[in-house]
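Collaborator request, handled under Task 6.
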Amino acid sequence: MDADSRTILIDDDVPGQAVLRVSDAVLIQEILAIDERMGRTTRKLEADFSKVETKIHRFPRGLRGIGGDGGRYIAPSVVAIGPYHHGAPRLQEMEEVKLAAAYHLCRSAGRSTVEAYERVRSVAGAARGCYDAADPTVEGVGEADFAAMMFLDGCFLLQYMVDGDDAAPVLRNRMTLSTGPSIQKDIFLLENQVPWLVLDTLAEFMSVDVHRFVRYMGAKFFPAGKAKPENGRRRMPCGCTGGRATKAADRSRGGRGAGGTEHQYKPPHLLGLLRFTQVGSMPEDMVNYTAFPLSLSSSAVELAEIGVVPTPSTEPWFGDVRVRRCRLFGQLLLSPVFLSEVTACWLVNMAALEASTAGASRQSDGFLVSSYLSVLAMLVDRKEDVHELRRRRLLHGALSNKQALGFFKGLGQHLRFGGRYFGALEEIDSYKRHRSLRIAAYKFVYNNYRFIAAFLSVTGVLIGIFKTLLSLKRHC
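Structure tokens returned to the collaborator:
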């Protein structure tokens, strides 16, 4: 048999049989071709994944169930930022406003359009690489049109950040007064972002404090998020210029957490910066916490029955989830949250961002906001549970109990459980195992407190009557 071939010999005398000869060279070529495709594809995927934290992602398909009715938490309702929703007919009215915003921003900053545009054009190639090149909405945009899009969208965002009472009336009307909170919601959508380098390039010579703006927007998550303007400080479009919530946010940025300080962190876009302002100062030991997956759950009412009281956390970061054992009972510490249509949208998109960038860090699974939301979703089974969270001052906002229940139950069906979520379950389980006798006594009192209160009341009356009779007897 030749060295380059193998031969399978079959008896020719048997009808229907023949000599089958297969070339080893052909087989090797097939294997090498497959191996080459495997290697090429693997290198491409690894190269793409190395940039996953700087990419602007589409909303994950597996999470679209949390996108709200009609995808209202996914697609913008007023303004398109970036190429993914650019050209949508319902968003065209704001394209004119972008031109006016860029015109006003350049002139108020004392910069020419040529200077500002050239700065953006110099980074447009790198900015384009932050989007999915295979996406039809990106492929169909020429280089010149893409650079113009980045320039106008970047200027629009910066103008919105500095817009105040002294802004051009037409801009103030079209960008804040007539749109309500819609723009606030739109500019933090996962699919509606421009790369940070575009904003950073423009903000370098236009004196816009993007970090400060995002901190104040992030203050809306806190119960005291609606703060009053301070004397001598320019009002932001979001209406937040101070107050307890924003001061807590300012304190959080001063600490060094898992992501370092705020100005050391290079966000991929505004949504990434918003998430960092909330969880970036969380201590590393909490961020990197690992726990064994558990299939346990407890509602707010069930926790109350065993003496674990949901309690507002006073930590400056958002998304705190811990169990603290007190001398008699326990506390489930949770960051209080102000839940509105805007903040609900932001929470959904921060969870979608975590899912899109999961695995980028070896130290943490990255599901910090997702874990916090998963714990809240676990606690809420009925409207009574929502009421309990409100009573405990953990949940605030204008959403009704029914709306809040629907929001959290929708999240619970789709979110990825992170390490902090399993850590909370582990701590609850440990509390149950180590305080079983105390829990049994507390649960009996909790479930029968009305009967016990009535019994004690009747007993008190009887004791009073007995004492009166005894006193009368002594005087007889």
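The cover message to the collaborator said: "Confidence is low (pLDDT under 50) at residues 1-10, 225-256. The longest strand covers residues 308-312. Please let us know whether this matches your experimental observations."
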